[in-house]
From TrEMBL, chain A:
This is 3-isopropylmalate dehydratase large subunit. GO terms for molecular function: 3-isopropylmalate dehydratase activity. Pathway: Amino-acid biosynthesis; L-leucine biosynthesis; L-leucine from 3-methyl-2-oxobutanoate: step 2/4. InterPro entries: 3-IsopropMal_deHydase_lsu (IPR004430), Acnase/IPM_dHydase_lsu_aba_1/3 (IPR015931), Acoase/IPM_deHydtase_lsu_aba (IPR001030), Aconitase_4Fe-4S_BS (IPR018136), Aconitase_4Fe-4S_dom (IPR036008), IPM_dehydratase_rel_enz (IPR050067), IPMI_cat (IPR033941).
TrEMBL record, chain B:
It comes from the Bacteria. Its EC number is 4.2.1.33. GO terms for molecular function: 3-isopropylmalate dehydratase activity. It comes from Pseudotabrizicola sediminis. The gene is leuD. Signal peptide: none annotated. It catalyses: (2R,3S)-3-isopropylmalate = (2S)-2-isopropylmalate. Heterodimer of LeuC and LeuD. This is 3-isopropylmalate dehydratase small subunit. Keywords: Amino-acid biosynthesis, Branched-chain amino acid biosynthesis, Leucine biosynthesis, Lyase. The keyword Lyase applies.
Length: 472, 201
């Protein structure tokens, strides 16, 4: 009889190739996702040493970070020279090393963390890595998924393994149910507000509890996506019937007898009663409100009913950081959050660029017009975009005054032409509100798609629950 | 990768918490397909005006710190994006060591792959080192990886912890991939076993 184990312990144990005396492990990697920005130097490293990709069939590449999302992107002139070189390098590397590839011209192209699950590459119990910190997204399937640097990308390409030391176990439980107007994004932001951006450092988080069980797979991806913003490399949710239903029939999911065997194994992937947790955080689902960020760290979270804090409300190094944030964001302590005027609305990203996110935003926008200077919807993949068009969501966005874009990371990190100008204030469904993240001097408020849609209609930060009351 | 054994150099004080990798190297500089050349854009948006002029107040623009090799900083250094361009930019500028109360995991790991030593010290030690760093160019700090100590310009010495495997690789400038490929047989047998027990993976 083995000691009770957490879900993380189980996945870890099943992937250890070798353990050194000092505890350093060689961990096997089942899926390696690759994009254009963090991979060129890794492929170059392989070429210089005459090494090959060990498991090209487990390696999946897609350009997403700096591809334009405007409708004219087929014209290469829409890209800057350096972006074009990066995308062309990925084209060439994918071809030369024989890895799975979704080029810009493919309808399946999109943000790497949306494409992986959509195509059935991401499955429960797997180890998944990518040279991108939001790889945590895939943890929603009960897979151990985290971001790596480019040196590690090269290491995984060459060896299909990573040198790792095991992290600690942290349980984040959300009890009860969410109230109307409250979403997965509000859960994940509220957890970071509670723990701080370094609260998860050194840990792998498992999210559990009734409110997590009640989320769809897409909601769970939103929650896990931002584990890294709480400092945890990876966030996990134990797979259940919803997970299996999501995976079934996807292009790269197993079929027939292999499917049956897989499900039998996946059903063993949960934390045992009595498993050891190094840290436990519990929030009541009923207590979570629609939230927004006010500052320049994802931990700067407040319910939309709140007011802008003062630097003096904090302690230690956070006092100076809060003052710096207030200055950067152009906010005054005591100001009501709902009085903050918004210039721009961005709906998209690996956090909130899936079909349910677009449905939630469209439900608020239907029949309304935007009151902001500009608003854009950037679907997470070409397939999400096609589905949204089929469901009539695209027309709702267009009628409301939104730009309806092609798939990519876009204004989440502003590597392509989608950028804020200095002082421009944006309601964004993405994951980082860092200084300059969406463009030099740009001011980002993070929130859910429904909240971003509400802000688009009123022109200021808005409690979406009031708008929902209107429509009833 | 260059070895890291001992380093005696100028330490730049950056008493900010949550210095994220977007600050260290903004995204417009990630469009390179090389590792080198990023030093001039290290901390770009804090270091230069929009027109490209140096901001004199920024620590690395001050005469005393232009050739700093160590940074002393607040909590959670390197949080955010996994971009290895952050340690590449630090290294290209000449920074070989960062001392802070805590680091984000991915950044911490990336440092070791590039010959940079990240050192975690308790707040009270960081406070002492920050004060020492503020003395400017005449105050040189010494970092000794072999003995795992940091010594201030006035001779106060503090020990630090570092993982033994990482220490070994850094002291000897070893390439991880070469070491792992020596275990190819173990990887082969793991794959053979997985093909039986988890054939869908």
């Amino acid at each position: 009889m083995t000691a009770p184990r957490t879900l993380y312990d189980k996945i870890w144990d099943d992937h250890v190739v070798h353990q050194a005396e000092d505890g350093t492990c060689l961990l096997y990697i089942d899926r390696h996702l690759v994009h254009e920005v963090t991979s060129p130097q890794a492929f170059e490293g392989l070429r210089m040493t005459g090494r090959i990709v060990r498991a090209p069939e487990k390696t999946i590449a897609v350009p997403d970070h700096n591809v334009p999302t405007t409708l004219d992107r087929a014209n290469a002139a829409t890209m800057t020279e350096d972006s074009r070189i990066q995308v062309e390098a990925l084209d060439k590397n994918a071809r030369d090393f024989g890895i799975n590839y979704y080029p810009v011209s493919d309808v399946r192209q999109g943000i790497v963390h949306i494409v992986g699950p959509e195509q059935g590459w991401t499955l429960p119990g797997m180890t998944v890595v990518c040279g991108d910190s939001h790889t945590a997204t895939h943890g929603a399937f009960g897979s151990l998924a985290h971001g790596i640097g480019t040196s590690e990308v090269e290491h995984v390409l060459a060896t299909q393994t990573l040198i790792q030391r095991k992290g600690k176990n942290m349980k984040v439980e959300i009890t009860g149910s969410l109230m109307p107007g409250v979403t997965a994004k509000d859960i994940t932001l509220s957890v970071i507000g509670e723990t701080g951006t370094a609260g998860g450092t050194g840990y792998v988080i498992e999210y559990c509890g009734q409110a997590i069980r009640e989320l769809s797979m897409e909601g769970r991806m939103t929650v896990c996506n931002m584990a890294i913003e709480g400092g945890a490399r990876a966030g996990l949710i134990a797979p259940d019937e919803k997970t299996f239903a999501y995976c079934m029939g996807r292009p790269h999911a197993p079929k027939g007898a292999k499917w049956e065997a897989a499900v039998a194994y996946w059903k063993t992937l949960f934390s045992d009663d009595g498993a050891h947790w190094d840290k436990v955080v519990t929030l009541r689902g009923e207590d979570i409100a629609p939230v927004v960020t006010w500052g320049t760290s994802p931990e700067d979270v407040l319910p939309i009913t709140g007011t802008v804090p003062a630097a003096g409300d904090f302690t230690g190094g956070k006092v100076e950081a809060a003052q710096r944030s207030l200055d950067y964001m152009g906010l005054t302590p005591g100001q009501k959050l709902t009085d903050i005027a918004i210039d721009t609305v961005f709906i998209g990203s690996c956090t909130n660029g899936r079909i349910e996110d677009l449905r939630a935003a469209a439900a608020i926008l239907k029949g309304k017009k935007i009151a902001v200077k500009r608003a854009m919807v950037v679907p997470g993949s070409g397939l999400v975009r096609a589905q949204a068009e089929e469901e009539g969501l695209a027309q709702i966005f267009i009628d409301a005054g939104f730009e309806w874009r092609l798939a990519g990371c876009s204004m989440c990190l502003a590597m392509n032409p989608d950028q804020l100008t200095p002082g421009e204030r944006c309601a964004a469904t993405s994951n980082r509100n860092f200084e300059g993240r969406q463009g030099r001097g740009g001011r980002t408020h993070l929130m859910s798609p429904a909240m971003a849609a509400a802000a688009a209609i009123t022109g200021h930060l808005t409690d979406v629950r009031e708008m929902m009351a209107e429509t009833v | 990768m260059d070895k890291f054994t001992t380093l005696t150099g100028i330490a730049a004080p950056m008493p900010l918490v949550n210095i994220d990798t977007d600050m260290i190297i903004p995204k417009q500089f990630l469009k390179t397909i090389q590792r080198s050349g990023l030093g001039k854009n290290l901390f770009d948006e804090m270091r230069y005006t929009e027109g490209g002029a140096e901001i004199p107040d920024f620590v690395l623009n001050q005469p005393a710190y232009r050739s700093a090799e160590i940074i002393v900083a607040g909590d959670n250094f390197g949080c955010g994006s996994s971009r290895e361009h952050a340690p590449w930019a630090l290294l290209d500028f000449g920074i070989r060591c960062v001392i802070a109360t805590s680091f984000a995991d991915i950044f911490y790991n990336n440092c070791f792959k590039n010959g940079i030593l990240p050192i975690v010290m308790p707040q009270e030690v960081v406070d002492v080192l920050m004060t020492d760093a503020r003395k400017g160019a005449n105050a040189r700090m010494t970092v000794d990886l072999e003995t795992q100590t940091v010594t201030t310009s006035d001779g106060q010495s503090f020990g630090f912890d570092v993982d033994s495997h990482r220490k070994h690789c850094l002291l000897n400038g070893l390439d991880d991939i070469g070491l792992t490929l020596e275990k190819a047989a173990a990887i082969d047998s793991f794959e053979a076993k997985t093909a039986t027990v988890r054939p869908w993976a």
